[in-house]
Amino acid sequence: MPNSLQTCPDAIVECIAQLLSLEDNCNLRLSCKSLAIKSSHHSFRTFFETKQVILAPSTLKAFVQGLRAQDLRSLVRNLHLVAFIDEASDRDPQARTITREQETWRPEQQRLLRQVFIELAKHAKDGISLTLRSGILKRYIGRFPPKSTSTWNCATDTFGMVMRELTATKLKIKSLNLFNDSGPNDHSLFCDHLDAFDWNGRDLVESLLSLKSLSVRMSMQPFPLRDIIQAATLRRRTLERQESPRSESSFTGIANIVRHCPQLENLDIICNTPSPNSWIPRFISDSERILQHLNDLETLPVLKCLTICGICIRAEDLLKFIERTRIRELSIEGVGLTRGAWKPVLDYCTSEQANMTKLAMDSLHESPTIGGIVHFGPERAQDRVSKPDSRMELQGDEMRHPITYLVAMGPHVGSPTPWQLEQPGSSLR
Fold first, then answer.
1. Which of 20, 280, 326, 378 satisfies CB 3.0 to 4.6 Å to 24 for a cystine?
2. How far apart are alpha carbons 199 and 258 in whole angstroms?
3. Residue 425: partners with Cβ closer than 8 Å, 6 or more residues away
4. pLDDT by residue (tens digit) across 31-68?
5. Do 218 and 184 meet the contact criterion of CB atoms below 8 Å apart?
6. What's the whole-number mean pLDDT along residues 252-260?
7. Which backbone phi and psi does 51 adopt, to 5 degrees?
C-alpha cells in the first residue's frame, strides 16, 4: 500500500470512504491497520445504521444476539420491522400447518421483540427511527391482489404487537412510520385500532417525547377500495357509512399521539382513498374530525412539514391548524373541503405572515358532493384545448405570488370549456 495513502489525514480518508461501496470499504479496511482505523468513522458506520428485520423468531433471535455481542448490528438507528402473513389456499394442508406454527410463535416473538427494544435502548441513547411494514406471502401467483382480510389483519396484528412491546421499554423514538410505505400491497392501519390504542402509558409517553417525525397511513374501513367491484355497492356502503352513528371519540388517534410530542417537526396523515381524480365523498361525516381533534389540543408543536392526503376537512379547521403550528412546508393531495373554500387558505399560505417556503397541492375538491375539482391558473382556465392543471407547486420567491383557481362542477374534467359555460354570469355563454 503506498505510504501517501496511509499518511493521509483522517478527513481525506473519510472523503474517499464516502465514495466507496460497502464491499470496497471492507477491502480498504483489510489493506492495513492504519487505514482500517481511519476508514472506520461516520461513512463506514452509515452502512449499518439501517436494518430491516422480519418479525420471525429466528431473525429476531439473531438480531438480539448481535446487539448483545455489540457487533455491527449495535449501530442500527433506523429499524424497519416487517411482518408477513402466509396467504394460501384453505385446502392446502401445508398452509394450515404453517398457520398453526405461526400461532405458536407468538409468545416467543413478543419476548424477543421486547429484548430487541431493550438492547437498542442501551446502544441508541438518542433514540431510533422505527418503521412498521407488512406483506403477504402468496403461494399461488395469480392476477388477483391479496385478500383484504389478510392485509388488514397483518397490519393490525403488527401494530398491536410492536406498540405493546415498545410500551414495556424506554426506547426513545425519533421517527415513527406506521405503514406509510410505497410497497406494492399498499397496506394501512384501520383508524379504529389507532384510536383504541392506549397512548398514555408512562413508558410510551417517555418514548414519544423525543419524536420529531410521525407518518401514518390509515384506512376508514377494513377493506380496500379495489375489493368493491360494483359502483352501486360503493354508493350503498357510502350511505351506510354516513348514516351509521359513530362515537365522538373516533379519529382521535393522531391527536392522542401528537399530544405527547412537543418536539414534532414533520407530520404525514395519509388515508387510503379512491383515485384523487375520481373523488367519492364517503368520508365527509367522519375524517374531518382528524383536524378538529388536533385543534382541540391545548398546545401544538411547531411543524416544519405537513402532508395531508385522502381525507375530508373543513377550511376553517385547516387554516386554524396551519396558523397554530406555523408550518413552513405544506403538501395536500386528494383532499376535499366539506365546508368553506380554498381561497382563505391559499391567501394565508402566500402571505408574509405565514412565511412558508413551499406549497404543493394536487387533486383538491371544494364541493366534493357535486364533484368540485380545483384547477389552478387563469391561463390554464382560458385554454380550451389543453387539459386543466389540478396540480400546483410553489417554492422560494413564488410563494409571494397570488394564487387563482377555478372549480369544475360535474363530470367535465377533460376540458374547462363546458363547465365554464355552466357558471352563472359566464361571459362565454
1. 20
2. 10
3. none
4. 777 777 766 666 667 788 889 999 999 999 999 999 99
5. no
6. 96
7. -140, 130
Model confidence at 417, pLDDT cuts 50, 70, 90, reads very low
| Adjacency order of strands within the sheet including 336-339 | 312-314, 336-339, 365-367, 372-376, 405-408
For 265-289, b/e burial (b = at least 16 CB within 10 A) is: bbbbbbbbbbebeebbbbbbebbbb
Q: Domain residues of the chain, as ranges?
A: 1-47, 50-363+392-399
The rounded distance, in Å, linking the Cα atoms of 177 and 130 is 6
Helix, strand, coil % (nearest 5) of the chain? 40, 20, 40
Q: Which residues pair with 376 in a beta bridge?
A: 405
Backbone phi, psi, residue 283, to 5°: -110, 15
Reported as a pLDDT band with limits 50, 70 and 90, residue 314 is: very high
Residues 6+ apart with CB under 8 A from 150: 85, 87, 136
Cell of 367: 364541493
The residues with which 50 forms a beta bridge, in sequence order, are 78
Length of the chain: 429
Question: 374 CB contacts (<8 Å, ≥6 apart)?
Answer: 342, 361, 364, 365, 366, 390, 405, 406, 407, 408
Nearest to 367 by CA among 340, 404, 349, 387: 340
C-alpha cell at 110: 413478543
Angstrom distance (rounded) from CA 255 to CA 197: 12
In the CATH hierarchy, which fold is given to the domain comprising 50-363+392-399? 3.80.10
Cell of 163: 406498540
Residue recorded with cell 495513502: 5
Task: Give CA separation, 14 vs 17, 20, 43, 368, 419, in Å.
Answer: 5, 10, 7, 55, 61
- Global pTM? 0.80
**232-236 long-range Cβ contacts below 8 angstroms, 24+ apart:** 234/280, 234/282
CA 6 to chain CA centroid, nearest Å: 45
| Closest of 363, 369, 327, 371 to residue 345, by C-alpha | 327
pLDDT of residue 284: 46
pLDDT tens digits for range 406-416: 887 655 444 44
